[in-house]
Amino acid sequence: MPLETPLYERHRALGARLVDFGGWDMPLQYGSQLEEHHAVRRDAGVFDVSHMRIVEVTGSRARDFLRHLLANDVARLASPGKALYSCMLNESGGVIDDLIVYHRGPTAYRLVVNAGTAEKDLAWIEAAAGPFDVAIDSRRDLAILAVQGPNARAKLATLLAPEDARRALALEAFSGTDLGAPGREAFIARTGYTGEDGFEIVLGAGEVVAFWDRLLAAGVRACGLGARDTLRLEAGMNLYGNDMDETTTPLESGLAWTVAFEPERDFVGRQALLRQRADGVPRRLVGLLLVDKGVMRGHQKVYGAAGEGELTSGTYSPTLERSIAFARLPAGLVEPLEVDIRGKRLKARIVKPPFVRNGRALIDLA
Amino acid sequence: MSSNVPAALRYTKSHEWVKENADGTVTIGITDHAQHALGDLVFAEAPAAGRAVAAGEACAVVESVKAASDVYSPLGGTVTAGNTSLGDAPEKINSDPYGEGWLFTLKPANPADVKALLDAAAYAKFAAESGE
After folding, report:
1. Could you tell me how far CA A67 lies from the centroid of its own chain?
2. Which has fewest Cβ within 10 Å: A204, A230, A344, B89?
């Protein structure tokens, strides 16, 4: 039985095509997936991401715990509200999940983890927490909306009380703040998964439907997971389960930049990554642009003179009007490359992601 | 949904339509029901003129963002033309599935085969019952 977010009836009423995502019944699209994509690049769109899981980590040793648990270093979060993106690794350096962690105060951090991995993540976190005497609190009572696009912050701010609007609009990228009355959850952060500016707002499950209605009335378009996937791939952002999993390290997944090796700290997976780095990382994740017409998709094979690799994510890019992909290649495999698309070999070029940022192509399309 | 099913055409259970032309060829495309189910099409590939196809053979492809779908020739025969304008504008299949969104034309090996296909009423009933 798939789970439902508090907005399920709203999605149905809007005529959404629903799909099972990580055990949740979620909207794939409400009408045209392409139009939803363009709405985010050009104006403002809202995604119900309440299937994702919020985990609060509190206690006097919360910082020490997370510096042990995560491959990125929460010591970099100098003040409350600051956030960073990190992988959580197993002892072999494989990725258990990717997540965002927010500093909430001297003894409190908030993690946001993926829907499909939430139970696995919680079990792992709870098992690791023992020696650190921290409280782990999975917040199934909260809902999350992602409001993204060049007009997203302005449109959302019109729905807030003047002082809250001022604080929200003053946020720097990758920062968040509490809003509104104490005792009532309302946390807003300037984060997202689309390559556009915007906010992600956390509300109590009982508040999110009314806020959704007000966003739509303010001219923010409802957007589904189909558009979310084309937007994130254009933005060069990984999707857990496709682009990395427990059998791949961050170094093999284009995520070396998320691993803080310095200052030296004993985090889970550190030794395995150092060994891999010393031996030479055997595989790398690259961006691909299909030269001709066609659509690249995950699991298709890519061939070069020295061997072969596999696409981890692929799609048609609505903004570029070309097909783009991520591919995992053996370290020595270089161009020229061809992708096998349903039995035909088509030429693809390696390009450095992101493919699109703030509505514009960042790569050479020629 | 109730989809558009022109009365003069013939149909298949794999959601292709067939129009008989005065010169003895037929024009083939996918139905309004099919284009709606697929969503925004971003790629389409029609067969080349001169290709021999069997009835039920996959000979064209239409792709949405989410998935690729084969199109099956309703009749055996020889392809006389593929709609190459779909290369730059596959969305024509969504906006005009029975007109500008045509996929290919075919000289049937046996013109009488057209009459064995579903008529508009039978297809409309089939499409309505097939869900979506």
Report:
1. 21
2. A344
Residue of B nearest to A35 (CA): B40
Residue among B13, A341, A21 nearest A5 (CA)? A21
Mean pLDDT of A222-249: 98
Assigned token pair, A317:
């890019």
Contact A295 B43 (CB under 8 A): yes
Establish if A316 touches chain B: CB-CB under 8 angstroms: yes
Q: For residues A261 and A285, what is the distance between their CA atoms, to the nearest angstrom? A: 20
Which chain A residue has the Cα nearest residue B94? A32
Residue A345 φ/ψ, nearest 5 degrees: -95, 120
Domains in chain B with CATH codes: 10-127 (2.40.50.100)
CB A286 within 8 A of CB A327: yes
Which own/partner pairs from A97-105 qualify as long-range (CB within 8 Å, at least 24 positions apart)? Answer: A97/A121, A97/A240, A98/A238, A98/A240, A98/A244, A98/A255, A98/A258, A99/A70, A100/A191, A101/A66, A101/A70, A101/A72, A101/A74, A101/A77, A102/A77, A102/A176, A102/A189, A103/A74, A103/A77, A103/A78, A103/A79, A104/A56, A104/A80, A105/A80
SS3 category, A128: helix
User: What are residue A33's DSSP bridge partners?
Assistant: none
| Dihedral sign computed on CA atoms, order A61, A62, A64, A69 | positive
Which of A29, A34, A316 faces B43 most closely, judged by CB atoms? Answer: A316
- With beta carbons less than 8 A apart as the criterion, state whether A347 and A337 touch: yes
Q: By the CB < 8 Å criterion, does A32 face chain B?
A: yes
Q: Is A300 on the interface with B (CB under 8 A)?
A: no
Which residue type does A66 have?
Answer: L
Reported as a single tens digit per residue, the pLDDT across B21-63 is 999 999 999 999 999 999 999 999 999 999 999 999 999 999 9
DSSP A24-74: EEEEEESS-HHHHHHHHHHS-EEEE-TTSEEEEEESTTHHHHHHHHBSS-G
Point out the residue among B39, B66, B87 whose CB comes nearest to the CB of A293. Answer: B87
Cβ distance of A226 and B65 shorter than 8 Å: yes
The complex scores an ipTM of 0.89
Distance of CA A73 to the CA centre of its chain: 18
Give the length of chain A.
366
